[in-house]
Every structure is written in C-alpha cells, then in structure tokens.
Amino acid sequence: MELDIKICGLKSEEAVAAALEGGASHVGFIFFDRSPRHVTVETARRLRRAAVGRALAVAVTVDADDETLSRIVGEMQPDMLQLHGQESPERAAALRARFALPVMKALAVREKKDLEAVAAYRGVCDRLLLDAKPPPGAVLPGGNGIPFDWRLLAFLDDDVDYMLSGGLNAANIAAALRACRPRGIDVSSGVERAPGDKDPQMIRAFFHAVRGVAGARPEETA
Ligand SMILES: O=C(O)c1ccccc1N[C@@H]1O[C@H](COP(=O)(O)O)[C@@H](O)[C@H]1O
Fold this sequence. Notes:
With 222 residues, this protein is an alpha/beta fold. It has helices at residues 13-22, 41-48, 66-76, 89-99, 117-121, 173-179, 200-211, 218-221, and strands at residues 4-7, 26-31, 56-61, 80-83, 103-109, 127-132, 162-165, 184-187, 192-194, 197-198. The longest helix has 12 residues, at 200-211. The ligand O=C(O)c1ccccc1N[C@@H]1O[C@H](COP(=O)(O)O)[C@@H](O)[C@H]1O is lined by residues 8-9, 28, 30, 32, 35, 37, 60, 62, 84, 131, 140-145, 165-168, 186-190.
C-alpha cells in the first residue's frame, strides 16, 4: 500500500508546486484566521487548481459553522474536509452527508487514553488524522510542530485508517515510520522557515527523507 503524503498549510504557488513535484497525495489549506497559515477562500480556490488530477485538495476547518463550510465547499471545491476542532461524530457524519465529501477527523493524542476517541469516529469518517495534543494555552489546535509518542499507536487495530501528524519533519520522519504504520503522513510547520512560510527546499528534503525509508517499508514508499 502506498503511503499518502499531505503537505498542509500551503499559501503560495511556489509551495504548492514543490508539494506536487515531490509527489504529495494531498495538499491542505487552512481556514482558521488565528493561524499564520490561514488563507482566504479565494486564495485556496486559486492555489488548488494546480492540484487537480494530481493531489487531493483538503480544506482544513475548526468547528466551522454551516454557512462558512458551504462557502468553502462551493467556492474552493475541495476534495476532502479535515475537521480539526471539537466536532462530534454526529457532526462529522452530518457534514459528510451534507457536502458529499470524504471527511478526515483530527484527534489530539498525548497519552493512551486519548486513543479511546478513535472508536467513536471509525465508520463515521473516511479517515482519522492523529495529531499531537496542543500544549496548554496554545492558540492553534494543530500546526504547533509538536510530536507525540508514536509508540502509542501500536495499541490501535491494524485496520484503523489514519494519517500521522504533529511535529513531523525531514529529521524525524524515518523514526516515525519505523515506530508506527500510518497509511498517510501530514506535515506543516516542519517544512517552514518561519511560521506560515513554507520552504520549497524543506519540502523537497521531507520527500527525500520519506523515500529514504524505502528499505524499511518498500511496499509503501515505492
Ligand atoms: O497548521 C495550522 O496552523 C493549523 C491550524 C488549525 C488547525 C490545524 C492546523 N494544522 C494541522 O496540524 C497538523 C500538524 O501540524 P505540524 O506539522 O505539527 O505543524 C498540520 O499538518 C495540519 O493538518
């Protein structure tokens, strides 16, 4: 099974191009105005065009209301919704039905008991995104560049479809992929030179590092 790779928090054509050239399966656009990665619907709509037929465009929202989501879906036309707030399983299911789009629900992980939430969203969402729990007082629910203990994921059933995220970068991705077996990985601040400022060279280095794990997981990185 091939490993999906999502580059998230894209704000420029240059960064989108680096993600697509590297072979990203997903490109993510953040709709959260307190994030340094926030984009307007117009910008996301323009940037996502380059990904058509090459990668899935993901709209990342945080407890967004129906009106906001309708505008994002109508104008940007994402291929997937990422719910990165406190959306309940019922809310996730309702949005999936209403917009007829696959939904990826982000769950915050710091300790083993945080994985109990997985059961409630399995079968409701198309995929989970297992991200690090934000530190106390953090403004952002994601994009904090903090990893969690990947070994916790050994407690999950093998058939849980999840993307791993939280503090991934070119230096640690090999260790992450040896510690657990995600079907996808998601990186944002780990490929930035400053908050919200993606570095094409760091994006290339990330892909290079992922492909360097080919010996360990040939069937997933070929
Ligand atoms: O990146 C953000 O600013 C952000 C804001 C609001 C919700 C989610 C956000 N980012 C998501 O968090 C993961 C992990 O980020 P990082 O690699 O630890 O920086 C990121 O890939 C986004 O999906």
